[in-house]
Amino acid sequence: MFGAGSVGCHLGGLLAAVCEVTLIGRPQAMEAVRERGLRLTGGGRADTRIAPALLRASSEPSAVAGADYVLVTVKSGATREAAAAIGPHLGTDAVVVSFQNGLRNPEVLRAALPPGAVVLTGMVPYNVVRTGSAAFHQGTAGALMVDDTPDAGALVAALRRAGLEAQPRADMGPVQYAKLLMNLNNAVNALSGLPLRDQLGARAYRRCLALCQEEALAAFRAAGVVPARLGPVPVSLTPRLLRLPDAVFRRVAAASLRVDGRARSSMWEDLERGRPTEVGSLQGEVVALAARHGLAAPVNARLVELVREAEAAGAGRARRWPGAELYAELRGAAGR
């Protein structure tokens, strides 16, 4: 697991029961793992503790040497740097899997790794938040997805043995676009300062997300992109669903609110810890795609600005936007 933060430690901890796992992450975090192991909660599983002896933890990229699979979970902005760090140490048969947000990380890895390196696209659908120095909580559900190729076979089998739902997919490109639509909520959640369940339960915040998704869908249509359908509702109808009054939304979209009370977006966690966010690979991707096809995406562009302002405020100091104020700000940006 290269970039073993919340998602990397969660996946690595569960996989440790069925295969040899090395976590590679920040020195302080890896020291905590070496001392205490991992504690994993949520996801419908019993409280799970992984003893330190079951994991190898390192902060050195050279620790990927000898790995059959290298699962990359760094933030999108660190992908090129990650490839440069692990490239010299990869075995010739190693398979690199991007379990990252955004659209371009697999192609960035392919371009920066040694020629011939096998890179697969993966997708993690659920939220994981750090609840302690070596404790992680899965707050939402869903199936992991990965390119349906022979190179993925052993990984999918290991994930399933570890109790994780894993689906090989032949349409990972459309899956990535569908996940991007979902991840546009990360910025809204981060600026709200609320748990995901509370934020999604409030119509004003959902209307903010609907504005983001409408711009994204327009850009997708212009680019000839058809996102995969990952849930019961076609993506084209999602903005309309998000705008429903709270009482109606609760009835027709109960699954959307079936979220652990502790779940928050990774972007919220980044702001709390004073780290750069992935807003450029989420809202920024929509802005760039729209511009390439002669369209504007002012709502997504304004959210990039607001998140950048929150980053500049420092750890835990970001402004918390009430739903009505954030919605008015975004409508104003769109000239509505």
TrEMBL record:
Cross-referenced NCBIfam families: apbA_panE (TIGR00745), PRK08229.1 (NF006083)
PANTHER family recorded: 2-DEHYDROPANTOATE 2-REDUCTASE, 2-DEHYDROPANTOATE 2-REDUCTASE-RELATED
Pfam families: ApbA, ApbA_C
This protein's UniProt keywords: NADP, Oxidoreductase, Pantothenate biosynthesis
Annotated ranges, domain Ketopantoate reductase C-terminal: 175-310
EC numbers, comma separated: 1.1.1.169
Domain Ketopantoate reductase N-terminal: 2-146
Protein name: 2-dehydropantoate 2-reductase
Gene3D superfamilies to which the protein is assigned, alphabetical: N-(1-d-carboxylethyl)-l-norvaline Dehydrogenase, domain 2 (1.10.1040.10), NAD(P)-binding Rossmann-like Domain (3.40.50.720)
Pathway terms, separated by semicolons: Cofactor biosynthesis; (R)-pantothenate biosynthesis; (R)-pantoate from 3-methyl-2-oxobutanoate: step 2/2
Role description: Catalyzes the NADPH-dependent reduction of ketopantoate into pantoic acid.
Organism: Streptomyces fradiae ATCC 10745 = DSM 40063
InterPro entries linked to this entry: 6-PGluconate_DH-like_C_sf, 6PGD_dom2, ApbA, Ketopantoate_reductase, KPA_reductase, KPR_N, NAD(P)-bd_dom_sf
rRNA-binding found in the keyword field: no
Family note: Belongs to the ketopantoate reductase family.
Catalytic activity: (R)-pantoate + NADP(+) = 2-dehydropantoate + NADPH + H(+)
Broadest EC class assigned to this enzyme: oxidoreductase
KW NADP (keyword) present: yes
